[in-house]
Amino acid sequence: MLAATARGWVTASRARERRVVAASVAFLLAGVLAGSPGPSQGGSTIPAGKIDPGLLHAMVDAPYSTLQLIVKETAPASDEAEHLVRGLGGAITHQLPIVSGFSAVLPAEALPELAGSPAVGLVWGDAEIRMNSGSTNWYDSKSSNQEWRQAIRLTSVENYYTGSGVTVAVLDTGVSQVPDLGDRVLARVDLTPEQDGFDRYGHGTHMAGIIAGDGSASDGEWKGVAPDANLVSVKVAGADGSTDVSVVIAGLQWVLENKSTYGIRVLNLAFGTDSRQSYGLDPLNYAVEQVWFGGIFVVASAGNRGPTGGTINKPGDDPFVLTVGAVDINGTGDRGDDVVAPFSSWGPTPDGFIKPDITAPGITIVASRVAGSTIDQQHPEGRVGDWYFKGTGTSQAAAIVSGVAALMFQAAPTLTPDEAKTAIMRGATRTSTYRSGGGAGLVDASAAIQLGRKGIYVTANLGLVPSTGLGSLESSRGSFHVYADPDGDGVWDLVVGEVDVLGQPWSATSWSALSWSTTVWASLVNVSTGWAATSWSATSWSGTSWSSTSWSSTSWSSTSWSSTSWSTNAWS
Fold first, then answer.
1. Does residue 36 sit in the same domain as residue 147?
2. What is the pTM of this model?
3. Fewer CB atoms near the end CB (10 Å): N or C, the chain?
């Protein structure tokens, strides 16, 4: 009886304490959202907007939880912010120079004190990425064909331009060794716990085959768009296809820092989140824009959450990059019967931009297969011979456009990303069957190349305001979260809050241009060249991985690769 009474007193005491903490956090939240300074914490005042509102809401809901943060430092060269995190009971998980900060885990109740420090510029949350592939299996009855090559007028230029001399970076699930890619994968960088650079899921190799497969395993029947282009594989997701925003950002930084080494002109991004955070604040949008401003043409898939409008995935919502939706060509090369695929996402974006910018064929596209990969084992009915697989989604459409971009840069090497975007959109074919989800229309390889060679005098993106990256990493995730075990204790934790997948805090203010330094990213592992260093070394990933339960049942569902397609919400 006494024990029961004591337990009841402790429970009541903790309940009162929680109410006090929740009330304090609610007061802080109300002040920040109203634009006024927050309450004093340790003698300092929290300025308005210093903490992501979504993170503050998470504190109100669970004041005794552990938050995953991204912290932007006011002085990235200093260790003051890192020491503060540890002193508050948190832990650093990643150094993230791309945002002038780091990711971490921190007790929720310590967040106000962290944000109140003058060493901290901004705090926001970390998040999961989904690959944008797939639709429903009503496409299973569609047979494989190569008519899409005629529909985009690739057949008019493929004897003249093959992508020779151009490198396309594929940020995906890795690229395996398959005959159609030969020795043209110049580097394999792996940011996953697997640390081998190869594709265990099956998506990244499929993208690579669409972009640059030479068809050697099929006597040329199933070749890609730019069969002489080179590739760089940046692996950000493992055997279950899941990854996190923070990992993708690390991959984006590597691509930009190594563009000259490998001649990277195009970046293919076939993933997305359902986040509604404004591109003007979002860290993922900021990262893709840095790649764009660095001279790399970024192609992003729109997502597969149609036919409803307002469903564009992030970072395809970014107004600078070229966002690609999918078209059903109805098995013919006649563009007059093409329609926007019902699964293809379309705008407007949360910021009011019309997306996608362009469309490309996205139904039953045949490309390289990874034998024994997750998708290959789950859906053997999707195999086409021994070396190929067929897939449906805006991922496939984006890969086609990335291949077209490689042809353009071969034909006109001095094109800027803005000029290339203009040429592709102006050269597109739009028919009466297109609804608003069709953007400028169906990509036309021949017209895009001709316009690019002729020269562009009025380019795309004029007047757009770049992202600051000062928003929330957690908000960037939308509803997509992964599970990880950053401390190696065998207990899976949901990656939430302003932290990356290694439990390191994330700081928004660290997203300065100076943060894209090559010195800190000795963390990546280049499997091809043997280059490796310590920050993201194999030891830092020990005990850390992505749980297969982190994806919802719709993201790469069992219906997604049955014969032809990918699932609705994951890799586009």
1. no
2. 0.72
3. N
